[in-house]
Structure formats: structure tokens, C-alpha cells
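Handout, page 2. Input:
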Amino acid sequence: MGGIYMLKLKEVSLIYGRKEVFSGISLEIKKGDKIVISGSSGCGKTSLFGLILGFVFPAEGRILFENEVVNPQNIWALRRKIAYVDQDASLGAGRVEDWFGFIFSLQANRKLGIKQEDLIPLFDYFELDKEILEERIENLSGGQRQRLALITAAILKREFFLLDEPTSFLDNRLKKKTAEFFMKLPQTLIVASHDSTWQNYLEKVFSMEKRKWL
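Output:
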């Protein structure tokens, strides 16, 4: 692994209202690392991603992204380095083609020069017919939306992937193909999942419940 730390969490605690979600979480993730955050539902995996993305801020401790403390002033610049897939594969509504048109048109993505035809190899790999571009997102199955969300993350070529239960709607064969795809990429990858498929493929597993590497 490289020697550059992409992300550090130092004794981080999170409180919602009066409820402590977790406390004392410390992690050091190097550039290029591929890890799984494991734990049962409700243990705080998604909340941890919310902290990394700056949707919420810790009650105690510090989060550093590329040696910068994450704060309200720098969070927008840091998010531009992250491709995030939430566990609901949120893509909004409307035609799939319009979704990708919107993503490609965002100022942060224009410099990539992505075109619709660049999607086709990814559609082929994730076993989606290109005719899906004409479908409405709200009419798609959970597995189709999940694969489109993964394709969206992949094509943006951000430095850091955060994937939250990204294969929960996929069968075992597609789960393995997805894990193999992201393992081959050079970017840093954190997957929050209790699925053993990811734990079998990725290099390190951090238990939220035990607060340590397994």
C-alpha cells in the first residue's frame, strides 16, 4: 500500500440527540486501501459514512481527509474527491438517460468529457441492456438501480469510493463481479457491508461493534 493517508479518524464519537451512536472509533486508511466496514444493522456503518462526507460532525474526536480536518468550510471541496453510493441507490426520478445527462453536466464533472457511449462497456459488465437508458428510474428494480448507481460512481473516476451496502439487491454472481470490478481499480475503497462476499474479496475488515480490525 502507498504511504499517503487518505483518511484518518481519531477517537471519533457521534451523538444524535441524546443517543450515542458510537464512540472511540479510530481508523487510518492509506491511499489505495480497500477495506470493509462490518457490523450488524444499526451499529453505525451508515452514520460513519455521514461523518466522512460531512453530513454530520463528530461530538468528539477529529476526521482528517488527506491531512485536512473535515469542517463546514472545506467539505464541498472534499466531497468532489468522493464517489458515494448510498444503500438505497438514490437516483431520483425520470429517465435513466436524463440522470446521466444531469451527472455529466455538473461543473465538477464537465472536465472529464464523459459521453453517453462511454457507459456502454460498464453496462455490458454489470449486465444491463443499453435500452435501460429509455426507462424511468422509478420503474426499475432495486438491482437495476443499484447497478446504475455503481456505474455512476465508477465513471466519475473520483479518488475515493464510499459504497454503503452496494450489492444488497444483487445475486451472488453479480456481487462477485462487482467486488472484482472495484478491487481492480486504483482508487481507495471503503465498503460498508455485512455481506461475506465483500469480506472475502477486500484486504481489511474493520468491525464497528468491536471497534477494531479483524
